[in-house]
Amino acid sequence: MAKRRKDLLAAGVTRAQLESAPWVSPHFGYHRSAQVNDLVRQRILDAVAVMPSGDVVGGWASAYLQGVAYLDGGWGRTIRGDVRVGEPVLLVVPPETVVNRVGITTLRATLQPDDVVECHGVSCTTGTRTAYDLLRLAPNLTESVVAGDCMLHAGLTDSSAISAYAISHPGRRGIRRLREALPLLNRMAASPPESRLRMLCRQAGLPPLEVNVPVFDADGTFLGIVDLLEPMAGLGLEYDGAYHRDLGQHTADNHREEGLERSGLTIVRVTSLDMENEQTLLSRIRRAHQACLITTPIAARWTYHRRTA
User: Fold this and answer.
1) How far apart (Å, rounded) are the C-alpha atoms in residues 221 and 215?
2) In the chain, what are the domain boundaries?
């Protein structure tokens, strides 16, 4: 963690050393080692180093420290090789507190003791309070659902707890969005891209989808887990993340998909490049769904096991 410059000097570190490559200054008057194993975690710790007493880490940073690796504030992701500009670390601060530091944003709120949990020595908002803030302060409904899915999948809270917390904290900014997102959450969603794809399917007019469901043939043989399934039309949607580019995984995907299609399912595969052009992808999903509905299908020789969301 970053330390005050004066404390480092008092401990024997020279000014020349602090100005050399092995050291960086994340905030004015603070320095730390430039060697970082986890850039996302380090950005959070940089904020904690200058966090006034009584402040609490919230939002995506709280979720990340509690093990939700997908909620990294955008710091850990890239688009076509370029590092994405990440979100600031959110600190939940008492109403009278002012924090003016690069890479930090604040939310003024009075927290109760049961709103706070210690994680690796850092005061963080609990899973339920974190989800409450993420859902209501997200930039749009889709990202609200993404955050909620991640929190539920990690087991840090559930929809009932978030709803109860919202009822006990009425009138806050973004409550309408939280209430809109809550019934759309699904703890079976395995990644943010899957959640975003599910929301795109909703925009495309598809009925609610089954999420990450095991599919079997007529004899009960396991065929595979389908990311998103519209069972009435027999349409499955698969998001191909980076690990699908591995030759072994790609081969296994092909074999699995052939088995699903032989049993009467239609599979649509989606990549990150597809997700960058939402309108084209929306049209593609609609066409695939309509084709499944109007084309005389192969007699369905499959079934699925619904998982409780």
Assistant:
1) 9
2) 1-35, 51-187, 194-304
